[in-house]
Amino acid sequence: MSELAWWQRGVIYQVYPRSFQDSNGDGIGDLAGITWRLPYLAGLGIDAVWLSPIYPSPMADFGYDVADYCDIDPMFGTLGDFKQFADRAHELGLKVLLDFVPNHSSDRHPWFEESRSSRENPKRDWYLWRDPAPDGGPPNNWLSRMGGSAWEWDERTGQYYYHAFLREQPDLNWRNPQVRRAMDDVLRFWLDRGVDGFRVDVLWLLIKDAQFRDNPPNPAYEPGQPEHHRQLQTYTEDQPEVHEIVRSMRATLDEYGERVLIGEIYLPVPQLVRYYGANGDGADMPFNFQLLNAAWNAGEIARMIRDYDSALPEHAWPNWVLGNHDNPRVASRVGAAQARVAAVLLLTLRGTPTLYYGDEIGMTDGEIPPDQVQDPAEIRQPGIGQGRDPERTPMQWDAALPGAGFTNGRSWLPISTDTSVRAQDGDPSSMLSLYRRLLELRRSNAALVQGAIENVAATGDVLTFERHYRGQRLFIALNMGAADAVMQPRSAVVLLSTLAGREGLALPESGYRLAGSEAIIAAI
Ligand code: GLC
Ligand code: CA
Questions:
Q1: Can you tell me the distance from the alpha carbon of 440 to that of 1, in angstroms, rounded to the nearest whole number?
Q2: Confidence of residue 1 (pLDDT cuts 50, 70, 90)
Q3: Is ligand 1 within 6 A of the CB of residue 266?
Q4: Span 352-402, pLDDT tens digits
Q5: How far apart are CA 489 and CA 476, in angstroms?
Q6: What are phi and psi for residue 143, nearest 5 degrees?
Q7: What pLDDT digit, counting tens, does each position of 147-206 carry?
Q8: Nearest ligand to residue 18 Cα
Q9: Taking every annotated instance into account, which residue ranges of this chain make up the domain Glycosyl hydrolase family 13 catalytic (predicted)?
Q10: What pTM, to 2 d.p., does this model score?
């Protein structure tokens, strides 16, 4: 598998640092805790750890409001702790990915404090400042993704500034060359410290319309959706000039060798794939989020796989994501039985999979009592299901320990004890064992890593496809329904099933009865 880059062969695992492992009893996860748990991740069989932001932050958006791009928040540790984490990860053969948040800083970042201090300040133009409309109101109709106008009035200097998210997260002006240089320095700061790549936050939002034109209304808006869905984001996202910025980030990473650039991009596939760049000079992997809100049925998923595969530019490497810190957990979306099918799907599709911490033990969305809500997305737009606390609850290590092994103190979000790593560890039928077997099988079968994907088909509730590389052909069948389904494979031998006792089974050509919610990988 040597002709592929490590990030093409590997599997990425996202850690939400606040919720992985607390080491000092303050109820919040930290770097020392993650370092301590690295052997677990190496044993699971993943290849790269992506950490959501760990930089100094007032935590208005739990770290996605960065007050210093080149340091570590004391809550998470120090630069020394980061070094220990990265060194230990590398010793264990794991790559280290950081979250890069270039679209906006915290309003407490010294850059913004300077920028807002006067209209003449040299950093004024580092952010998006505009005069009021003639009636004194906001300069245009742009809406924040956290509710309300995206413009915040600044009394002292008599202008508004733009924030795509919270008012505590002013957007930087990426048309300003000094901003671009400063951000390039940030990338280099971490690359010099051995970081293997970045997940770039809201990459498709970086540039806004130069003329600040009003966004048009969205005719498909339905009450109950987040407020900014009232408008099409015509002038606030996916602007043509963004691609040049992606190219320059990519060029910086290329100076350091095989580093990976991943973009957080929520766009339809035809627009998404443009972020690969024209000649492979863009992002290595614009995140493919289609599975996050796919209708969970065989026909829909088959269509999605085929469309994505045919939309990919030549040489573009695919990727798939099943969960993250902004979306309900897969086990809650599709149920426990289908979460096992989803695991097989994620790890057999063509392209790099990204796992979200806790999904490997089938964690479900936590119950958050109203008085314990933390997420500003819920607090500022209550009652429309935008809250992200449920998918951010702490990792369940050992239900028998206080704090489930996550903390000795009082956890920042409630911890569920319905299952745990400890409970699943030695159980061959557990979700954790399934993930370990899948990751092991992927590692040892080139067809799963670099094989073509062929014969994608949906028959009733059963999704089937093949992975083919050199002499090896694997057949994957996933029953996305609850009822048994008979399928006609060519003669095949089961390498893995979500059910116990089927490995090694020879499948007769006459027909094989796939149990409800069973998924198999077979050699044909
Ligand atoms: C991204 C992050 C999300 C954050 C937002 C603003 O979408 O994933 O958690 O709230 O950017 O930074
Ligand atoms: Ca802690």
A1: 15
A2: low
A3: no
A4: 999 999 999 999 999 999 999 999 999 998 888 889 999 999 999 999 999
A5: 10
A6: -110, 145
A7: 999 999 999 999 999 999 999 999 999 999 999 999 999 999 999 999 999 999 999 999
A8: 2
A9: 14-392
A10: 0.98
Nearest to 367 by CA among 413, 425, 308, 408: 413
C-alpha span between 79 and 31 (Å, rounded) = 10
Contact between 499 and 515 under an 8 Å Cβ cutoff? The reply is yes
Q: Can you state the percent helix, strand and coil of the chain, rounding each to 5? A: 30, 20, 50
**Amino acid residing at 260:** V
Q: Three-state DSSP class for 162?
A: strand
Domains of the chain: 6-104+177-438 (3.20.20.80), 110-162 (3.90.400.10), 452-523 (2.60.40.1180)
Q: How many Cβ atoms sit within 10 Å of the Cβ of residue 12?
A: 24
Evaluate whether 161 touches 149 at the Cβ level (below 8 Å): no
Whether the Cβ atoms of residue 64 and residue 169 lie closer than 8 Å to each other: yes
Which two structure tokens, joined as six digits, stand for 248? Answer: 């320059």
Catalytic: 201?
yes
Other Cβ atoms closer than 10 A to 113: 14
- Characterize 267-285 residue by residue with b for buried, 16 or more Cβ atoms within 10 angstroms of its Cβ, and e for exposed: beeeebbbbbbeeeebbbb
| Residue 433: strand, helix, or coil | helix
CA 512 remoteness from chain centre: 36
- Judge contact between 33 and 21, C-beta under 8 A: yes
For the Cβ of 275 lying below 6 angstroms from any atom of ligand 1, the answer is no
In the reported structure, the alpha carbon of residue 202 is separated from the centroid of ligand 1 by a whole-number distance in angstroms of: 7
- Angle, nearest 10°, between helix axes 31-44 and 79-91? 10
- Residue type at position 404: A
DSSP structural state of residue 292 = G
99: Cβ below 6 Å to ligand 1? no
| Ligand 1 atom at minimal distance to the Cα of residue 164 | 6
Per annotation, catalytic residue among 201, 237, 264, 284: 201
| Active site (annotated) includes residue 281 | no
